[in-house]
Design brief:
Blueprint (H helix, E strand, L loop, with lengths): L6 E6 L8 E7 L2 E7 L12 H5 L14 E4 L2 E4 L2 H19 L4 E5 L5 H15 L4 E3 L6 H10 L17 E5 L3 H4 L1 H12 L4 E4 L5 H4 L3 E3 L6 H14 L5 H7 E2 L1 H8 L4 H8 L3 H13 L3 E5 L1 H4 L4 H15 L8 E4 L6 H6 L6 E2 L3 E2 L3 H11 L11 H9 L5 E5 L3 H4 L3 H10 L2 E6 L11 E4 L8 E4 L4 E5 L12 H11 L9 H11 L8 H4 L5 E2 L23 E2 L18 E5 L26 E3 L1 H7 L6 E5 L4 E8 L7 E4 L28 E7 L1
Parallel strand pairs: 6-7, 6-16, 8-9, 8-12, 9-10, 11-22, 12-13, 16-17, 17-18, 23-27, 24-26
Antiparallel strand pairs: 1-2, 2-3, 4-5, 4-18, 14-15, 19-20, 20-21, 23-28, 24-27, 25-26, 25-28
Bound molecules: iron/sulfur cluster.
Length: 680
Amino acid sequence: RHGPPTSHVRTTCGYCGVGCSFDAGLRDGRVVSMVPSDDGPSNHGHACLKGRFGWTYNDAEDRVRRPLLRDGTGWKAVGWEQALDLVARSFSRIKDQAGPDAAAVISSSRGTNEENYLFGKFIRCVMGTNHIDNCARVCHSATVTGMMETLGASAATNSIRDLDAAKLIMVVGANPTESHPVLGAKLLQLARRGLPLIVIDPRRTEVARAATIHLQLKPGTNVALLNGLGHVIAAEGLLNRSFIEQRTEGIDDWLATVKDYPPEVVERLTGVPAEDIRRAARMYAASGASLSVHGLGVTEHRWGSHGVMALVDLALATGNIARPGTGINPLRGQNNVQGASDSGCLPTHFVGYQLLDDPVVAARHHAITGRPLPPRRGMKIPDMWDAALDGRLKGLWIIGYDVAQTDPNLKKVREALSRLEFLVVQDLFVSQTAKFAHLLLPGASFLEKDGTFTNLERRIQRIRKAVEPPDGILPDWQVVCEVSTRMGYPMRYNHPSEIMDEMASLSPMLAGVSYERLDRPQALQWPVPDKQHPGTWLMHGETFARGKGRFVGVEYLPPGEQPSEDYPFVLVTGRLLEHYNCGAQTRRTEIIELVDSDVLEMHPDDAARLGFTAGQLVRLVSARSTAVLPVAPSDRVRRGELFTSFHFPGTDLNSLLSSSADESSKCPEYKVSTVRVEPV
Ligand code: SF4
């Protein structure tokens, strides 16, 4: 790409929540290389292929470069003035005619904190409602519910550097070698050096192969297994009594629950041998410092928030929390899924997880923004689809999130999108969701703007503008300022640093954050309560955010679907190393030459029984839809179980999935859908 770079700009990877630091190499106004930074606090010179080579989508021919207005079945390019006027006019009309609650925003876990905060400000101050959500709803919202309930804060309790301090690591429902590759490589390295590793996963992933014990449970049985571990810990006197007494409450509730989960009973529910359950429980309780990381294999279940609570219960029972080398550490998926929620893109909380009906929060909001903070909780994403279908929701603004490819229940989602009076989508490319839009606004990529992302260890890191966006594309934060100003609520900032200053003035959690302080390699990990505070690498050290850590005894309940004669297989979905979520970015890079389709992993015995050979196209059939994809016999999955990814829109994989969801967080059950497999 045009020779070696002549200058560099320090930035942060735009893919996963590890948040690797990179030096973008520039030449003649273009990015020509991405080199991982030696002093990057979460990557120390390492990177995966997505961060290192998966950025050339930035120059893709099919980037949306002008606002596009729906014109029959096609599009008509229009100027920015006309487009921004249309957005402002449409939302003003909806508010005047149908009231503030007829509009909503779905913001982006790929956008910056500052952009996410401003979209929240738009919906609260301009429209007057809390109808805002982000894609954490479909990944880690169950973590938020589960950890808030038990600890009072939903983010990682410890830091990536704590992997080195742990004496045992438990990986629960996560495949970090593919989804968080730099962290996954670190885990493999530690395991090879002798660190005990317990992996709880239905698949025999790379990290499971390296584990001391792999608890290969049936999909959807996490709560039973975690309660089984708890049973052994309680029955064998492995509780940390002094920690429980000083730091927790509710132990009796939990003890009464786990009493009913002896290993032999749990073996029948989960398929995990009783002796392995005993061995894992003893190791976790007795290591001296056990740290857990968990992923969507815990949260994306009908009882996902219960799974998170059961995991926290184990840490509280054994004192494996609030110390170095321990804790509960959700592996947040997208680059800024942590930050989007921190920035107030939630229907239930304002920036910094502040409660909407807290009079102190409301007064501060009014004083700084000049508008009241709407007190009533807004709609979560699944509620928005219901509201669009019954006519209550008329206007929707979706930023950098392809709901029409990646949400479950796609038939319903697409029908809801098609019913809206006004849908504006902001994206780099014509996504599946954009096909339903009345107006499509181009977006600026992470290489084309300033701002911050917050990684999975709460580290707020700078991204810096490396190149100009093509054809005068505005960063998302400027778009929202322009629309708000046109709607009579002027938003004027000279630079995203001023937006962060405003966020700091509104949120005690971010009070000490400023760009000046972020402009150093270590950046800052929240909470940062004042300008002298160094940031927080270990949470809950002296006291839990809610005071005492709370045990919550949770019973095992089955997933939403069970295999049947018509649909005998359980399908689990997840990511591949080479691609990223809907694939819009990675499919437009050279990485496509490595993997160019979703494939169906099926146990070799099942493939042989059904007469399928490697690469043969098969049809997956669920009660909702069908999808065709090639089969890949693999012993990574057990008999009767299947695995595939969702990176290619042509597969339309998510249209097959179960409509079950976690009752409290509404996180969908992506991990258990029943299907049958037919020859094509
Ligand atoms: Fe980017 Fe994640 Fe890979 Fe690091 S591990 S380079 S943050 S995708």
